[in-house]
């Protein structure tokens, strides 16, 4: 395992990590047969061809990208207007798109990158564009442990200022790297389902007791195929016999195998199984709310932490960025009314704050 070091910028009394040049943990390149030969990595396009993976990706990326981002002052947790680098990193695109693909890279590859496109007079990033992680190559020092620079499409980029990279470091190597075997199994099962859809019946062999020329055999097979497309009942004379080989859909257990791999995809992404259609019967509003909390804790939280801490590096000292989870985790109206009835008399919330949270503010 590599080491982690930070490049520090000193500005009067403020010591702040400059995220645009901070190297991060770099795993050793020593690979075992299990990781390379038996469990090879899988590409994004292959993984996204599996419906369960695509749904898991869209749930994780879409949920986090839609959450409001807030900046707080650390001394009293007061709200501060978020700077443009957090509110909308790339003015040319919707912020949800930038964050969604950043989150996807963290989920799939364990790392994500923004490239700084504008800085302020203090050389702090003002805007940035998303760069796909598969376009970025790390330049290492002579020990092959520390990142000393980055290349995009084999072109060296600066370590600070416009053109430099802001790295987002995931908590693991990404599911494309650590779960290649599982994802390839799911992909092969999708291919098997497609092949069965093309040929829904077991392979049939027609055997004639009489010697037939090649032309007669071809004509017999064509006639058999045409008849099977129009009717399910077949007629054979004494000279022709039919034998089936292979398995039908029940014997192949395609449905059971697919359900198993959907559950495996849920496990490797940390998503509760019912989000992917496994064991979804009997869900009610109350336990759906608790499942949302489970989704945050076990699937979204590792990515949220990485995003929040990296974005906080771009803020002045004494400020930090947080994703607002209140709307996503809010209970039903009865539960919220009970909470308000206790908080308002204690002076923790005012009636105006309750009206604001419930979107009951009168229009101007």
What does it look like?
The chain has 364 residues and is of the alpha+beta class. The chain folds into 3 domains: 8-182 and 257-332, no CATH class; 203-245; 333-364, no CATH class. The protein has helices at residues 33-38, 44-48, 51-66, 84-87, 95-109, 175-178, 180-198, 214-228, 249-252, 254-269, 285-313, 326-329, 333-343, 351-357, and strands spanning 8-11, 14-17, 69-73, 79-80, 111-119, 125-131, 136-140, 147-152, 155-157, 165-169, 203-208, 240-245, 319-323. The strands form 5 sheets. A 3-stranded antiparallel sheet has the order 4-3-13. A 3-stranded antiparallel sheet has the order 6-5-10. The chain has a 3-stranded antiparallel sheet with strand order 7-8-9, with no helix packed on it. Helix 3 packs across helix 5 (95-109) and helix 7 (180-198) packs antiparallel against helix 10. The longest helix is centred in the last third of the chain and has 29 residues, at 285-313.
